[in-house]
Write a structure and sequence with these properties.
With about 270 residues, this protein is mainly α. It is built from nine helices and no strands.
Length: about 270
């Protein structure tokens, strides 16, 4: 009976999360279905699923790994912060170059994977990739809350995200078209992410300055993708999808090589 009471007590703290997550994740589809043609909605949906599907897989994999890890060390703030920073750094260093790649090559990628008409959804694809990365990073903080028996902290974050999404989705779609759906999601996830960073700072004494520097480093490394793509367009013809994608992949390889060196140095310093 004691175990059942504990389970019910824990479940009450997470009550409503599924509905709130549904609002955040699908409000764009519901609104766009009323405001754009079925053909445009199809282009938008297929484009954003290109990043949402692998992101969901990675998030589930990390959750299954990190949640029990954080649960075992839930009273060790230093270790929790160290793991959080290492995982966040790795995700940012891997994800940010991919976002730069999609910025320069998303048009070609959609054209190659789905067909030329889908390239019209290149901008929503880029914004969706940024939303997906922030969602992944947010998920690591969520694992800390759940591991410490405080899912209500995450629920408050999702309440913020759902409210922001409801408020912004219609005007953003009206002003920005297909891109507005993901722009509303981007503002929502930023609001929720900042709330969770503030909460975890109070919970584990996370150094927010060091945490923020991770993103600056990731952006700096990712500039290598931009340099390669812009430089290639200066000297060779990359208008066709395959050459453009190959140039982008070359930039990613360079960025990931630098990222690997930075991660190794970080792990050596912390160990």
């Amino acid at each position: 009976m004691a175990a059942i009471r504990d389970l019910l007590h824990y479940s009450r703290k997470a009550f409503g999360l599924s509905l709130l997550n549904l609002i955040f994740a699908r409000a764009d589809i519901f609104v766009l279905a009323k405001m754009v043609s079925p053909a445009q909605l199809g282009l938008y949906t297929m484009a954003i699923y290109l990043v949402q599907t692998p992101t969901s897989f990675i998030m589930n994999l990390l959750g299954q790994t990190l949640l029990p890890t954080f649960a075992q060390i839930q009273d060790d703030k230093e270790r929790i912060n160290r793991i959080l920073i290492q995982v966040t750094s790795a995700l940012a260093l891997v994800g940010m170059p991919a976002i730069f790649f999609l910025y320069f090559c998303g048009h070609s990628l959609l054209q190659l994977v789905y067909g030329s008409r889908y390239s019209a959804a290149a901008i929503p694809l880029v914004i969706a990739s940024l939303v997906a990365l922030l969602n992944l990073l947010n998920g690591q903080i969520t694992s800390i809350f759940f591991a410490k028996g405080m899912p209500q902290l995450h629920r408050r974050s999702v309440v913020i995200m759902a409210i922001v999404m409801i408020v912004l989705i219609y005007p953003f779609v009206r002003w920005f078209g297909l891109s507005g759906g993901q722009l509303a999601a981007l503002v929502s996830i930023i609001a929720g992410f900042l709330f969770q960073v503030e909460r975890v700072n109070k919970l584990t004494d996370l150094n927010v300055i060091d945490f923020g520097k991770l993103f600056l480093v990731a952006v700096g490394v990712s500039l290598g993708v931009a340099v390669v793509c812009i430089g290639a367009r200066t000297f060779i013809e990359v208008a066709h999808p395959i050459p453009n994608i190959l140039v982008g992949l070359l930039g990613c390889i360079i960025a990931y090589g630098i990222s690997a060196g930075l991660l190794q140095n970080t792990l050596k310093l912390r160990n």
